[in-house]
Amino acid sequence: MSQYSKKTFVWIAWMWMIFLLLPSFEGVHEYTKGLDPSWCIALKVAIEDKFKFGQDFLFTYGPLGFLNTGYTPDGFIYQLVAFLVHLLIQVGFVVLIVEIVKKSVSKAMALFFAGLCFFPYRFVGDLSFSLLILQIGFLLVFLQHKKIYSLGVVTIITILAFFIKLNLSLAMLVIWFGSLLFFGLRRYLTIKFVIALASTTIVLMLILAYILQTDIMVYLSSGIKLVDGYIDAQAVMNDINGIRLVLALLALLVIVSLFLAICWDYLPFKANNKDLMADRFYVICLIAMSLFLSYKQSFASLSSTNLYGFFLFFPVMIGLILLVENNKRIQVKVIILILCSLLFRNIIHWSWSKSNLKEYVFSALPTAKRDLGNWQHRKSTLEGIGTFISSSSAVRFFTHSFDDEIVTYTKADSLERAFPKEVNDYLSKGTVDILPWEISYIMVNKLKYNPRPIVQTYQAYSGYLDSLNAQKYQSATAPDYLLYQEFPYREQYFFWDEDRTKLTMLANYKVVDTLAVKQSVGYDSLLVLKQNPNKKDVKYNLTKKAVINTFEKIDLPDSAELLFVKFNLKYSLFGQVTRLAFQPPYLFVNFVYDDNTVERFRVIPSVLKGGVIANIKVKSFSDAMKFFNTGGLKNTKIKSIQLDSPYQWGFSNTTEISIEKVIF
């Protein structure tokens, strides 16, 4: 190929970046209500109010998490950081595309598939995975060309990722320090240079932690507990079941089989060249790890949306092999694998489009499901294309990212969250938190938000995390008022989440009001609790400790006091394997009430280990009102509880339990 032709392909790659990738980040200009918007807004408020991350605020997202959510904090500096970070990412992707073009035997074919491969970056539901792809890509660029600049890029990416999303960044830290060790052992870098780069990474992380007001040790140690509990607490299959689950697993099996076929060709098992073998084994390990992390992200909470996300990032990750391999046979297999993943992705896309060609075409360019509604109602294909180009221009990015427009809720959402004036009058005199998560009530009414460290109840899925929230409500910085809702969450017994926190609320707050807020359909019911002037300690008096058969029925003592029960539940070896390879085996509990009626709920093992209020029923708003008004005396009693599971082989045969009486 002539030098002129090579330059042409490079320019095409840059044009791809300018017109399609550059504006992938836009700040949110209108808030919405709901579970996910709540933590996004809480994160934004925490940054603006200078909360100490790891201490005042703890979540899987860190002080730069707004780069992922789009809920940009107020202030020009945050807009500038958002733009610079995303510009770095766009340019990084283009560099990888150019490197693939230069490496491939067939330039035209490589560029075509690089375009298809990297186009999913417009799926910005998880920017941290884009950072992971860039990290691995530039490590492979160094492996191929030994250019030191690529390691500088990796250093920056790794540090940024640590403060954006904690759970994935832990794996990225392992990849980075492991790669430095590998490059040192392979003598691609001197030992002094390896130590210097590793030290620079740590020092820069500490400096940035200071600037971003992050208690890095607590942020890291508590974050590890968050990540571990996430696997148990978020395991669910939403709209993937029956034949859909079978098809999803078959698609995964096809993908894995083809990937293993590539590994078989790529790794020269019979070769005597140990250096080549080591380098190729390193490449496969990086790609395999990235695929596994994407798979766990998607299959932990399995739904069509998450499955679609997996097939968005999958071809990008596989395409990275083209950076280091020019063997035509391997390249063809990589391209076949990319085509298969694109096929599966578009099958999901077609199902979202209700098998309607027009809706499918109108939603073909944007790659996230959330864009579909913006496209399917266009008057014409031409209008749809025009909208896409205008929304994807660098000009629009600048004009919308740096304006001073006040972000607010829609009028409809504001009406559904507005409190009566007399309620706002007394709530505005103090600080407010809300359980389980609907922060829009606080934002719409312009109240002073004073959250507990784990800002959403379903995220406090271990005794340790629950205790952090309980400590907040016991401390001098506790909010003056609490808003409380009780409603179903998935198929879980939701009252068992944050039970230490609820006991602290019972000791230190009293119900002062009940609210019925009119919605488009029906009413939202909320309790208003006010902090007592004199704080009480919550004490636990051990009454029984025993080792039982895990699925044995437990008769609870007839007690006027609340009973706090802990289960030191453990997975069996098979349970640990399924927990790692797919999802943990689901666990349920059967309640027998004092009227002999029986109910069954899903429960989370990590929550059971931390302890739960076991002898009263709290399932509805009226139940919650009785609990906080009478300390549970007027709630329906639970006579016995019994763990159950369709996958009993996933748990150890015996479990240690303790029953404690709660004393205020």
TrEMBL record:
Keywords: Membrane, Transmembrane, Transmembrane helix. It comes from the Bacteria. The chain crosses the membrane at residues 9-25, 76-98, 148-164, 193-212, 245-267, 279-295, 307-325, 332-352. This is Transmembrane protein. It comes from Arcicella aquatica.
